[in-house]
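> Could you send the Crp/Fnr family transcriptional regulator prediction when you get a chance?

Sure thing. Input:
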Amino acid sequence: MIEDPFLRKLERAVQLSEDERYALQSLTFNRRTLPARHDIATGDVTDRVYLVMSGFACRYKTLPSGNRRIVSFVLPGDLCYMHDAGAFGRDLRVGALTPCSVVDLSRSKLVELIGLHPGISRAIWWVTLRELSRAREWIVNDTRPADRRLAHLLCELLVCLQVIQQADEHGFEFPVTQVDVADALGISHVHINRVLQSLRSSGLVAWSSQHVTIPDVDGLRAYAEFDPAYLCFEGFGP
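Output:
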């Protein structure tokens, strides 16, 4: 059983050798713990790649109006700033929504491992393709009505957290605020409550005490028009 959420995700794409697992794990020993509402990375250009090992974080941008727009959630096992393009690739900040454990990886060391190990190279390439696919789906999801948008987001979180064994068949711990979810959906903080009440009254979702329960997963997926293929957890295929 792979306990490391980072390795658990990579193993969905590539069967890593023992040497490759050890090489990756050697990068993740030194962790720092950040409190909620603290930036993990501010967009400064450094030789660092950030790996979230526990907690919920997000990629976000603060608009000129002062409003925040969350463009993706960052879950345990996710890399941030792996494939930036210098100053122009770091326009987004990464912030902790809950207390998070984070590893600051050396980019040069990770690149060195990619050059030495074909399995790691293939796995990191999969990470890139997966993030691009996920970003496209978030754009498409913005065209849906707000209640279906929320339903789609919860379906995505369920699948992603199941992969790292942090969700069961019908739900997961979700210690973020409704304000955070509203900023991810691009709706007002007042509207999110009405949207959630609509899903709750339809029997599709129950969200209480920082736990999301989805009584009818297939029903919610159908309502959200959710197809998990874009998450690429089947790897590269044959």
